[in-house]
Amino acid sequence: MDSPVAIENGYKKCMSWRWGIPNLIPFLIPPNKKKFLRNYNSLLQEEDMASLSEEMEIEVLSRLPVKSLLRFQTICKPMYRLIRDPAFVKKHIEHAIQNGTSTFLMFQYFMPTRMEMNGFYSIDHTSLSSQLLSSIRGNPLRDSTEMAYPVVPPDYLKLLGSCYGLVCLRTTEPGNEDSICLGNPSTKEYKKLPDSPNHFSSSTEGIEIGLCGLGYDDKANDFKVIRVAEIDSRADCFDDSSNWSETEIRTIRPRSGHVEVSTRRSQSVFEIYSLRSNSWKGLKTTPYYFPGELKPGVMVNGFMHWWAINRIAGYEAIIYFDLSDEIFKEVAVLEGPMLHDGEVADSEYENNNVGVLGGCLCVLHKTFDRVDVWVMQEYGVKESWTKRFTTTEDSIIETSTLRVISDFQDGSILFSTDDSLVYYDPNRKRGTRKLRIPGTGRLKGAEKCIGSLVSLGSGTYC
User: What is this structure's pTM?
Assistant: First the structure.
């Protein structure tokens, strides 16, 4: 094993090569420098760091934490240029995903001690995992730190997904309902998206926002936001030429109590925002309906996935949005034990949701008295569906918005429910418990994120 002096010297050689500024070395040293160096032990012993190729130098830097790289940018012009190079940013993300480094969890909590405002917190994924798997019983969220937020007060923001270091936030501020803000928690940059020319707003009669997701179009090298609205024939943008269905409406007359039954046509329409062009594209219809509350998409195999119902044919399916072709496609039609008996479109406690377990697409099949978790072992192959476990834990089944936030090496899972985080071990070795950051109230949102250098090009920071 290398001595501490050898490790320190090797680290300094590694970090002082091309820029030639030894005094800046402390700005780059991450807390886990020993682990960092041992990953390159053979490189340090066999190569002369001064003669490394530019490719190798970039390879070494691309494995450093965002925080370490940002410390250098204001006092070293070459580093400033490097961390804004799209190729370097992409390589940095690839290493973060592949090695599981720079991963953190982001939470939004109701704060009862702050005049009913909300607060955002984060915790390192490795730190949380260590706390959860430790034999010492304690609050695993005690190391969470409060985060800065954009100019919109946090009680008017809703967390709606993450992608390659960016998070998507929807505003509920009076007068700006359904506006969207993107942010990079690592760099603290944020960007309020321009208003849509389609005037999507939940406050408009006949329009209800049903889905919002953030993804990355690898072909176009562009981040995109998709927003789906459920509209009916009262809305001006309703298109009665295709992809609509009829819904039964019951109206009770105030004085007589007489119930009148009528039908109303409705359809799902979507619009797309491109970060590269900083603009929204026009409306398109889709035959899919998205039951329940507004849910973030789940990123698997490079695509965002949701549970949906085909409003024309009536079947349940797991669908994804192809960001390059800008169209919804089916990855699986649900069959047999993954279906619900009767109508599920508006059921609060009988529904499905999608998630990721062990890197595979999964379905949380929820009924009144249990949750069955199915995993698609081979993406796109319906024969590979396998039931992983069933749970009847009250803290998991007594919720309408169950989501998988993260899983851990021992197979345990962190769920989010209507009001809290729930740690669950299917192997029953560590039990089930609700988790909460001290001083906070009910949970409002949670996402698994990675630290990245992705720029929004806004120049605005929080």
Answer: 0.83
